[in-house]
Amino acid sequence: MTRSAKVRVRTYSAGSGYCSLVSIPGRTRTRHAIMAFGDPLGEGGSNALLRSIARDIAEQTQGRLDVIVAPNEHADTLTSLYRGRSVFRKMQVDNVWMGMPSHPRYYYEHPSADIHRSMKQLADGYGRTLERQRALAPSFKALLRNNVENGSSLEYVRDELGSTTWYLSRGATMQGTGLGDVTVKVLAPEDEASTYYAEHPRQLVSRMKAMSSAQDPASRDPWTFPHVKRATRKAPVNLTQSEWRLLHEELGHGAVQSLRSVDRAQSDTSLVLSLEVRGKVLLFAADAGARSWELMTNQGLLGPVSFLSAGPWGDLEGVAGKHWDKVFPRRRKRAVAVVATVDVARLTALKQRATVRRVDDNAGEPWFDVHI
Amino acid sequence: MQRMRLFSVKTKDLPKIKARIFVQDPLVAESHGVGLKKITLPGEAFLGPGPTTSRVAVVDYNAELDELFAPVTPLAQGAGFAVGGGNPIRNFKLHQTNVWAIITRTLNILEDPKIFGRRIPWAFPGGRLIVLPHAGYDQNAHYDRSTGSLNFYYFAGERGTVFTCLSHDIVTHELGHAVLDGLKPYYNEVDSPDAAGFHEYFGDALAMISSLTMIEVLKVVVKDKPGRLGARNLISDIALEFGSALEGDAPLRSAANPMTMGQLRNNWEEHDYSQVLTGAFYDILRGLYKDEVPRAKKARKKTKTDRQVAIAALISTARRTSRMMLRALDYCPPAGLTYLDYARAVIRADEIAYPTDDRGYRRMLMRAFRDRGIVGKYKDLEAQRSYRNDEFRGYDVGRIAGSKTDAYVFLDANRKVLGIPHNVNFTVWNLYRTRKVSAGGYYPPREIILEFGWSEDVELSGEEFGDLDGELFPLWCGGTLVFDSDGNVLHYIIKEANDERRETLKQYIEYLVSVGAFGSAGDDIGLGASGSAHRIAARSVGGRVQAVRNPALRHVGRKR
Predict the structure, then answer these.
(1) How far is CA B88 from the centre of its chain?
(2) Phi, psi dihedral angles at A265 (to 5 degrees)
């Protein structure tokens, strides 16, 4: 087999997040899929970067994209597709693959998952309030930006981006619907997405309600404790001004944790795809977090792969090893993992099993290629 | 015998303060009929709204709502608080006094001559511990040195809202972190799983000690089997309501556990580590109680029932266990603690407090430590060094005890004898006196305790250290020297940097890196900084790593 007959995964340096173009040579033509589109306007990005990535995609695909995968509803996934719409409109985009929770009627048909939508809405409002009140760390600002309500981007991706939009959940097989004879298995998300926050649904919802009620002093929600008398002074009588200021600043971290929970729940609903091409398996895990990996492992969905693409896998820390045992059961020289995490500490276990490349590991070039 | 309160402010002219507290928590109140109890605390020179007193200030701020709840106010005569009535779960003023009174009461127990015989210092500036009974929504409670505060959260449980500020065990556990941080600030450093586990053990031990002073708890515990302590009871079950809300009918942790050091091979998790010592504490309590009950029965008056005798025996046993296990802290090194150091300190402190051991209690202590795998042979529990007074240069205990500077001069002049390396630039961290009393009115020697320490650098090299690869990490060293007031050395322990400690530190850091405990503080500063998402924030200061534990995540990943 010649090098050109191999699958090529081109990973772009797309600022925060990542974007990859998968090109699969076939009998009649090469098929192309974009797996997510990071945020070229975010940290380290620019409009020029977005344009250069879009131009290269158009050139490499000769104006035809078989599939665009929008793995979740994080802003950096959707808005990049939306902002690049002038390029995509000139191209032929046959299919858009999204996770089942992105279906417009999903929450009507899955009422138990509706808390996810409420959480996103509440987090959006609370995040904005927090941003007005406090000096936020850049990384946390980015997290808030990533979880804002993005209705117009979502509608564009659903309704306008491609000829056909598919909403996928675990168990779906997409053979013949976009990537020719490539066997595409959907490993996640679960059809019932509430499973990703089932461990603490009550806690999360209650907490979010409390946060939301904080926006509305007239609320009679029990988590605002309406029966409890408030202090008449704005600062405690038994603290100095500086003690109070310090305490006030430090306690903001509780709200930070709540917003991180919402972010994790969104990451866990990511579309995870396994592509089998001529006996080699490529796994695109997007932002799947600990809960999603746990489910995939427990259900026996994970097997050895030749290529892994994974996002910043936030809460996978500490538990990733057992999952890597499934996808990279032994050290394989040619196995490659492309990861978006910036935390090198988390890569140790992975490095023992595969050649690891970070999305920004491109020696100054706008992209790097991996041939499988 | 006249009750000795050498370190207490005379409060006879001040009215005693009455308050109601939960004996355990609202779930125990429902299941065992042990609910609120009225207690009386010594008068305070200042009693303000909050409550606010000399050592504690309650600030009922809710960070999620960004609102202050009205503070409880003292009654005009200063004898209590205008708490009001109604359902205790909904009465936030009761919550405020509950948490204040439990903390004040527990501090009084610890500062009593029967335990530490001195004031408990804080590790933060200022004399008042700030307490937030309703800090926000979370399954959490934590101590935060940076703000000098205890933060209690609430969350939705199966039976309704769980307020952690109403759990006697949780309040005393968190107070335990604050107390230990005040007594031994360097135990908060990233050092070893022993030191981290010790923090959790100390909190749980304090919860048990406080429970053991509650007569209502003792009555329930001895109710069915007056002669022995079972595996599950209100003493060994720690934070029952909290644990039950998380997972069925089970406490957060149990002191009646079988965990040994042998089972911790390749396990560095601090809550698991704490279980070994918490289990040893309970083993010792059980052993002493089993020994005490037949004696108490023999000596009892005819009018007393078996149950009354059992309660009296348990009170006596509890006091003895608390004294033995807590006083040892004064004999522990100021940094680099291992469980073996602690076990040695327990034995040595007991020898000082009770020179004769006609009941063979020390053998019982040794057995408990051996059974838990903390020590292999009893011989290892013997003091590692002993000194004659004439071995020291410039030895004048009056001067040494006078100031930290004089103490430094003495230590510096005796580096060789004391095993302090010549090249290290050490500091006298602490110099204090105690005044203790043992059972039966025996006065042990008055102690003068001198703690000093320094740090050495350990280079981390290898990709297993992640972002810390190539960095220098501090290894904290130090010693504790205990004299009596006549200048005799009662105890000495020093923790130097050696290959074994360096290797342990490296392995521990490797473990922490592998579980993603470290977050790099870097330039990401402000609310929600990436470092704050991790259990330990690491930043490079002056060429080496400064690792700061994130207090809000201390209990994340906790296990039963």
Answers:
(1) 28
(2) -60, -40
Cβ contact, residue pair B64, A210, below 8 Å: yes
- Angle (nearest 5°) at CA A268 between A349 and B551: 70
Classify residue B18 by burial, with Cβ atoms within 10 Å: 0-12, 13-18, 19+: middle
Of B48, B130, B530, the CB nearest to A139: B530
Q: Which two tokens stand for residue A296?
A: 């995939």
- Nearest chain B residue (CA) to A216: B65
With CB atoms and an 8 Å threshold, state whether B63 touches A238.
Answer: no
Alpha-carbon distance of B355 to B432, in angstroms, equals 23
Does B515 contact A318 at a Cβ distance shorter than 8 Å? yes
Q: What's the start-to-end Cα distance of chain B, in Å?
A: 43
Cβ contacts of A201 within 8 Å, gap of 6 or more: A115, A194
How far apart, in whole angstroms, are the C-alpha atoms of residue B560 and residue B554?
A: 15
Which residue's structure tokens are 């906790």? B558
Q: Say yes or no for a CB contact (<8 Å) between B70 and A238.
A: no
Residue-wise pLDDT for B292-315, tens only, equals 988 888 877 767 788 888 999 999
Token pair belonging to B436: 């203790």
Taking all residues of chain A, what is their mean pLDDT, rounded to a whole number? 80
Total beta-carbon pairs less than 8 A apart between chain A and chain B: 182
A202 chain-B contacts, CB cut-off 8 A: 156
Are A307 and A336 spatial neighbours (Cβ–Cβ below 8 Å)?
yes
Maximum distance among all Cα pairs of chain B, rounded to whole angstroms: 74
Q: Considering only CB atoms, which chain A residues are within 8 Å of B67?
A: 214, 230
Contacts of A203 in chain B (CB under 8 A): 137, 139, 155-156
Whether A250 sits inside 8 A of B147 (CB atoms) is yes
Locate the chain A residue with the closest alpha carbon to B69. Answer: A230
Residue B559 is predicted with a pLDDT of 40
Mutation target to probe the A interface, by most A beta carbons within 10 A, among B96, B100, B532, B548 is B532
Contacts of A139 (CB under 8 A, 6+ apart): B524, B528, B529, B530
CB contact under 8 A, A203 and B137: yes
B434: which 2 tokens? Answer: 């105690």
pLDDT tens, residue by residue, A108-162: 888 877 767 776 776 777 677 677 766 777 777 777 777 776 778 889 999 999 9
Cβ separation B526–A254 shorter than 8 A: no
Inter-chain CB proximity B60 and A231 less than 8 Å:
yes
pLDDT of amino acid A343: 59
> What are the strands of the beta sheet with A272-277, ordered from one edge?
A183-188, A272-277, A280-284, A307-310, A336-339, A355-358
Distance from CA of B117 to the nearest CA of A (A): 29
Cβ partners under 8 Å of residue A308, min gap 6 = A282, A283, A285, A327, A328, A335, A336, A337, A338, A339, A354
Query: Strand B67-68 vs strand B129-137: parallel, antiparallel, or unpaired?
Result: unpaired
Among A79, A72, A64, CA closest to A32: A64
Q: Is B513 left (phi over 0), alpha (psi -120 to 50) or beta?
A: alpha
- Cβ–Cβ under 8 Å, residues B166 and B197: no
CA B150 from centre of chain = 14
Least confident stretch, B336-345, B378-387, B470-479: B378-387
Looking at residue A312, its pLDDT comes to: 67
